[in-house]
Design goal:
single chain, 376 residues, alpha+beta, Immunoglobulin-like, 5-stranded mixed beta sheet, 39% helix, binds dinuclear copper ion
Amino acid sequence: MKSLRTLLGTWVVALLTASCTFDREAHPQSSIHPTSDFASVIHELYVDIFWWTLGILVVVWVALAYILVRFRARPDQPVPKQVHGHMGLEIGWTVAPALIVVAIAIPTIQAVFSTQQGDPENALVVDVIGHQYWWEFRYPDSGLVTANEVHIPVNRPVSFRISSADVIHSFWVPMLGGKRDANPVRLRPEGEDPEYNWIHLTASEAGTFWGQCAEFCGASHSLMGFRVVVESDQEFAAWQAELAEPVTAPMTAPVDTTEAGEAAQAPVQTAQIDPLVEQGREIFHSQTCVACHAIAGTNAQGEIAPNLTLLGQRSSIAAGWLENTPENLVQWITAPQDVKPGALMPGVNVPGGNWPATNLSEEQVRAVAAYLFSLR
Ligand code: CUA
């Protein structure tokens, strides 16, 4: 008995401390720490239903315990009266659960409709497009594009317009709210708007939130993550401005022929230009990379692979799967399919999608990684 009490006590304490000291870093995909209006509606419903069902559990257990004790078999007792069919009981245990289901359905349906409203006047629309196995994000109002790490402003309504470029995926950021399928866009007849799924929310806290594809979509479904960076209006505007006009180091150092200019600029330039980055830039922009990837402000304008503008600023690569470090970029460029089976990017020795192996040397791979990491 004592060990049971100790066990229960430990469990309750663990539960309480776990809920009191929520560590976002340790549990980045918690669905019970809502940080948007949408997530809060779901969470409140979840908590309400939890307590109701706990109440039902207690009633059932108390009744069960009473019956087990009160009517337990005793020596010398006659066999109790046998009952076959009891209209009152049968109606009771059919109607009671039905009423419970109705009681749960009413607030659930209310919650579903309350989260479908959106704010067409003020909402920032973000197109979410699922790909095997990464996420594309487009801002239709500014025409800006990014991949795998989307930025949104805090305390402002955002409407995610969700679709897919290939198979069915599902867009889910547990802390910001429920999930929605990303369906291949179905065109309606006679030029009507295509059908999209939407998530409308207003994030209430700044921070970086983890998302995950939540619909099985192929070999690397479980590796199809992303990040949502929620930031202040000013930070969001600054990020968008940078995305629109990223500062990329010049291909070759501009030559200032005036004596004064040379004196003033020479030290700055030598500090700025990393030969490895320069080498990487030349390789990236002269190889097949540019057929699929885009980097704003350069000749890379491919649209079938993740947009790499400001890649160095992202916290992760390979759709949320690897931390963004030069070493991991090298690993990814060398053998993408080893990280993510089914990835369409060719590796150094392995073809990918419709492309042959890149045949880059180790040094060239390091250079490309250095270049991509420098895009910040
Ligand atoms: Cu995309 Cu699962």
